[in-house]
Each structure stands twice: as structure tokens, then as C-alpha cells.
Amino acid sequence: MPHTQSQILKALKNVARFSALTEVGFVATRLGGLTNLVYRVDIDAEFGSEKLIVRFAGEGTNECIDRHVELHNARAAETAGISAPVIWADPDTGVMISRLIENIITLSPQLFKSRAGAVGRVGKCLAKLHGSKSDFQFHFDPVVTTNSYVTILAKKM
Fold first, then answer.
1. N or C: which end of the chain has fewer CB within 10 A?
2. What CATH code is carried by the domain that includes residue 55?
3. Reduced to 3 states, what is the DSSP secondary structure of residue 157?
4. How many domains are contained in the chain?
């Protein structure tokens, strides 16, 4: 379910510099996202002229994604210099506000294959991350992850 302007404003007001922001002080545009509801938010000049991403957890995703680990890893990626700065987040609800990276494109499998240099750019980012002092939490094991998803789905049936 898309979020209303008032829900986005409520999230933004968790950031002190947006305490005076009103519903008419920004424009929100829904972006893509597989598991989350993602909005580009352009703050008017009167309130600081910022460009942000406001992300709401998709329905049921908090059962599959440890948002505390996700926030830790987002900050680690930021420290490594390969991700946008996190401005505010609530891992209990999955709401996250970060800076917008202009002209960024979320790579789908098709775009990953077709965009010139995509593989090399991803490789450079991964090398930078692995070479950083950033400490990631969580080890991805596809078998364990798949089994946990099956367990979650079985409880819903």
C-alpha cells in the first residue's frame, strides 16, 4: 500500500532539521522496489532544499529481514564509501531515510547484463567494501535463508 504524504512527513519529522516541515514543503515520488516502498523526496528550498530517499518496509518483509542487521550493514557500507549516508532509521518499523544519490539506477538482472561496465563497477564496490574496515553482520547462506522463508510461509498457510 502506498504511503500518504502525511506518513512520509511523520517519518521526516524524526529528523530534527525537518521539525517545521509541512505536507506542502516537499514532493514525494514513488520509486521501484522489490520488497520495500521507496520514495524520492524533494524538500523545498524553504526547508533546506534536500533530496532524500524515504523507505518503508514492505508488508511482511520484517519477518524475513532483520532490520537491525540491515541498518548496521547500511552504515558499514556508508563508512566504506559505497552507499548513501543514512540520515535516520527505525529498525523496529523498517523506516529508513537516506540521502538521494542522483542518477542512480537500481540494477535488475536484465540491466546488470545489458549496462556497459556494470559488472566491473559492482566488482569495484565489492572490493572496496571487502577492503574496508567496515564490519558487516550476517552471513548469507542460501540454503538456510530458503529454509527460513519456507518456515515463515508454512505458518501462513
1. C
2. 3.30.200.20
3. coil
4. 1
> What's the residue count for the chain?
157
Tracing cell 531515510 back to the chain, one arrives at 97
pLDDT in tens, 67-113: 999 999 999 999 999 999 999 999 999 999 999 999 887 777 888 88
| Contact present, 57 and 67 (Cβ < 8 Å) | yes
Residues in Cβ contact with 72 at an 8 Å cutoff, skipping those fewer than 6 apart: 136, 137
The domain containing residue 125 runs over which residues?
5-156
Integer Cα distance of 1 and 60 in angstroms: 12
pLDDT digit string, tens, across residues 25-79: 999 999 877 788 999 999 999 988 999 999 999 888 877 888 999 999 999 999 9
Does this model's pTM top 0.90?
A: no
Q: Cell match 510461509: residue?
A: 153
